[in-house]
Predict the structure of Recombination protein RecR.
Amino acid sequence: MEYPSKLVEQAVEEISRLPGIGKKTALRLALHLLKQPESQTAALSESLKDLREQIKYCQTCHIIADTEDCTCQTPSRDTTVICVVEDTPDVLAIRNTGQYNGLFHVLGGRISPMDGIGPDQVKIDSLIARVKQSGSEVKEVILALSSTMEGDTTAFYITKMLKETGVKVSTIARGIPVGGELEYTDELTLGRSIATRTLFSAD
Amino acid sequence: MEYPSKLVEQAVEEISRLPGIGKKTALRLALHLLKQPESQTAALSESLKDLREQIKYCQTCHIIADTEDCTCQTPSRDTTVICVVEDTPDVLAIRNTGQYNGLFHVLGGRISPMDGIGPDQVKIDSLIARVKQSGSEVKEVILALSSTMEGDTTAFYITKMLKETGVKVSTIARGIPVGGELEYTDELTLGRSIATRTLFSAD
């Protein structure tokens, strides 16, 4: 593509590094910014810089936070249960369900030997330490990991490492999504949903 | 939506002002940046700032350019014809066809009384002045405007204003797109393509 200016080319180059944004969209965005007040671009540029430079991660649960002590310290939270997730968006998704009021622990990834990511690259050690340090306050660790080979590997590893602490380890249910129809559900999910069926009460 | 941090919220706010990007996509982009090296975000932030602050528009043809004298001054261009377009992307689109080697004139919009945009808000005066100043070097003005009410209004106005200069005014052909099938072409386009039919030679 031919660009009208070096500055536009540079901006397109940088914008199109973002996931899901190609050169054409990047050009459209850059030209759009040029038509808006200068203050808008300044605010965007500044907010990105601040985001990357000033962001902190909670030292306990590794959630993105403004300070190093995040909401995991809020007294209203149920401190007897820790939900282990792979990344920050998962925390938001689970919070948005309104079904969970416990603590979180963000691994920052999952064990994936294929990509050279071992147990040391994700925050498993700090999870184990956290459970141990809590004395016996933490009663349960819920694994909310993705239902993939890597997610399962991570789950097995964590379970093994937590064994000596005696804490209860559970995993979120895998099964048919709410609203899902049997005939369109894939065999693996259906098989698993039968194997892990739960008692049903009509009361 | 609940955000893990004020910084993330601010970034999402700014990113989602861009056209076609909602809050969810903005959040995904912000969290993506947090996983990349800090230098990437710095480069993005910087390039946007530079783009908006340093960009220039050619004083003659109003194309986005790095300097105030743009490629419209290149001697290899055909200086007897000016193609009038609404905006910079149109210039790129026409350049990419490889079918045109003349000059450009970017109006920066089109006359639209509904939106309160009159002839003074677009660069029509400077087009007229440009044609007049060229002596009789400019022989033809090609109007490459969008095929809408506003585009047509702008075309009529420019044609009227150029009348006294005696320059030839043409408009790009409206008709069936290359590869288009008759039965799927809308009636207006088809009607116009018949009215403005061109001589066909089998030589």
